[in-house]
Structure formats: structure tokens, C-alpha cells
Design goal:
Layout lengths: L1 H6 L12 E4 L2 E4 L1 H19 L1 H7 L3 H23 L8 H17 L9 H13 L4 H4 L5
Antiparallel strand pairs: 1-2
Helix pairs in contact: 2-4, 3-5
């Protein structure tokens, strides 16, 4: 907030649902605008952070670009959609523990002689889906 106050004058309190107010001929930003700005910057940071994961799947610039645009547009709405059903994901940590090591290997070895093939990735996913530890994912009582 202090950094932003050096750039733009900010009021000391909220003014309803307004982002900007004019006082004495000077336009001030409200703390609501600062909060909005911080939320949007965090969306942008998380979208840029996902670029290495996208390059693990493809090197097509169009797919990388569009996936980041959709990440920026949908990240917050997806968060609120998932927040309501988070209690249904009993085995999320186990699933991430199975999938993320492969993704890390693909990202790390993408430009080396040990590059992982897409078919190997699909085989890893299919094997992890069919393994006994993934049986709870198929349990209709949980879904």
C-alpha cells in the first residue's frame, strides 16, 4: 500500500463501492482499488507461473498463449467454484503425489536426451488410474 501511495494518491478509508473519488479537484484512488489491483496482479503471477507446466505438454506458441489467457480470465472464478466442493476431494493429495513427479520430470528433462514421450506420460497416467491406490477415485459413494 505504501508503494502504491507514492505513485497515486489514496484515500484513508473506503468510499462505498467506488474505486476513485474526486476531492478538492484531485482524483484519489480508494483502498478498494488497491485491493482489486493486488488480486489482478496475483492472477497474472499465477498465470505466468504456469508457463513451464504448459511447455511440458506442448511447444506450440498458440496453445501456450491461449492457455495463459484463459488462466488469467478463469482463475478466480474457478477458485470460487471449487471452494464450495473442496470437501469432496478426499484423495486430492494422493492424486497430486502421483501426477506431479511425472510433470516435474517432463519439465526438467524436456531439452535433454532423456526427454519423456507423450505416450509414456499417458501410460503413467493410465497405470496410476488402474493401480490399487486409485480405487477410491472410482468409488461411486464418494463421487
Amino acid at each position: 500500500m505504501r508503494w502504491f501511495k507514492r505513485l497515486v494518491p489514496v484515500t484513508g478509508d473506503y468510499r462505498g463501492d467506488r474505486f476513485f473519488v474526486r476531492e478538492g479537484g484531485v482524483r484519489y484512488a480508494t483502498p478498494l482499488f488497491v485491493v482489486l489491483l493486488l488480486v489482478e496482479v496475483s492472477d497474472l503471477i499465477f498465470a505466468v507461473d504456469s508457463i513451464p507446466a504448459i511447455f511440458a505438454v506442448t511447444t506450440d506458441p498458440f496453445i501456450v498463449y491461449t492457455s495463459n489467457v484463459f488462466a488469467i480470465l478463469g482463475l478466480r472464478s474457478l477458485y470460487f467454484a471449487l471452494a464450495g466442493v473442496m470437501n469432496k476431494f478426499h484423495y486430492l493429495k494422493i492424486g497430486l503425489g502421483v501426477v506431479l513427479p511425472l510433470l516435474a520430470a517432463k519439465c526438467s528433462w524436456a531439452h535433454t536426451p532423456w526427454k519423456l514421450d507423450t505416450l509414456l506420460s499417458l501410460a503413467w497416467w493410465a497405470a496410476s488410474w488402474r493401480s490399487p491406490s486409485s480405487r477410491p477415485f472410482c468409488d461411486p459413494r464418494i463421487l
